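Could you help me review a protein record that somebody else here produced? What it holds is a sequence and that sequence's fold in token form. I have pasted the whole thing underneath without changing anything:
=====
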Amino acid sequence: MTTLLKQWKHIFKLDPAKEITDEDLEKICESGTDAIIVGGTDNITLDNVLDLLSRIRRYTVPCILEISSMDAITPGFDYYYIPMVLNSKEKKWMMDMQHQAIKDYVDMMEFSEIFFEGYCILNEDAKAFTYTNSYLPDEEDVIAYAYMVDKVFHLPIFYMEYSGKYGDPALVAKVKTQLQHATLFYGGGIETAAQAKEMKQYADVIVVGNSIYTNMKQALQTVSAVKE
């Protein structure tokens, strides 16, 4: 999987709490994207995760569960991403929930399939920002978090999450200079091919989510934009 991370360029993120037609799901799964993440903040249940998983499994695209609720953990995904929210004011989002998950599920965990993400949420208006009781880090904070992920915690992923807001390409570029080993994921506000192409100059992997539900045509165009 670490090798795959270095090869991937584009991921679509689907929210199990949102509706998507079979026709649109087929377009997403057959788009040429490198993988699909299933994850969200609100109303994530085992039932809606299983429903979306079963529909994605009709296709060959790799499927990842990004764990935001332990109640929705289920076998059947190719990989599992576990966020560690670096800029949360509460230790539980950085360590305690992950600790509890390992206590509860260690006997059924295959660690070759599990990857911890150093998560930095950078949009004050995002649900995830409020839900995790995060603070808005300044540029020096973000760069320091990237350094910690790469050289202190040795996590495989540093995720810059703007969640619905288009971020600062200059900051993404500066963060990239701190990462020698971790893969840089960027997610948030990518609605057009031009935005995807701009962020891909600096981030290793572009994650596209909200635009799937607002403008499918433009969302699909982001795949070729980062792979050409």
